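Hi there,

I know you've been waiting on this one. I reran it after we fixed the sequence typo, so this is the corrected version. Both the input and the resulting structure follow.
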Amino acid sequence: MTLLDGLATSRQIKSEIAQSVESIVQSGGRPPHLAAVLVGDDGASLTYVTSKVKSCEEVGFRSTLIRKEASTSEAELLDLIAQLNANEELDGYIVQLPLPKHVDEKKVLLAIDPRKDVDGFHPENVGRMVLGLPCYLPATPGGIMELLRRYHVPTEGRHCVVIGRSHIVGLPMSILMQRNTSPGNCTVTITHSKTKGLDELCRQADIIVAALGRPEFLKGDMVKEGAVVIDVGITRVPDATKKSGFRLLGDVEFSSVSPKCSFITPVPGGVGPMTIVTLLQNTLQARLEK
């Protein structure tokens, strides 16, 4: 069993990005600039955004964190997005989800300039991804594909089962895994809460991408010998023995699944770090295209 170490891989990619940034600056250019918009006080979102800002500093990016009260109106947020779209010194930005219930997330998403949509969620980028055209890939699926590529995980002709159909992970993963690329060229089955016979489908899979947000959902008896398992889930579970008061669990029961795997991602330290470096790669791409 080989552990797909997202932490070590992300460090290597950050080093490569830092070298590119140094080259830009030495040539007289400005470093890439990434902004993050955080509306409200969601603890998990704040942790995630803070990690992104720290990663920007590590690779030599400029970063801007824009915090807004949870009471910020939809109109005010759309005005802010218009300002970010018009800012020539800003290469890319993200609006951290979830947003307060009174804000229409779809309206916000559509307002983002696709050229600055480094999260890869705008319909223009999604459409280009479907057509195999240059685009900003959604950060988590893009990070998973990079992890598979760097570990030379065989995918061609394999059966890939994706558990979960979210627009952020499940659907784009199903598209990327079946494209005529390497990694890719899989036969893909996408499953969800209404799928019948999910256990049996998983037992048929050569590759499983678990992205449904249910801790330790995938058990050892649902996985065949030699399978590749990608655990996208990360859930905080109360744990009084931890200083933080919680521990992190993925969607995969690692203890029972990992002995049967050829490759598997850990939680934490698997997909999460790759998500952040893909965001950095997208921002660097946006800077280089100016």
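Quick highlight: The mean pLDDT is 95.

Best,
R. S.
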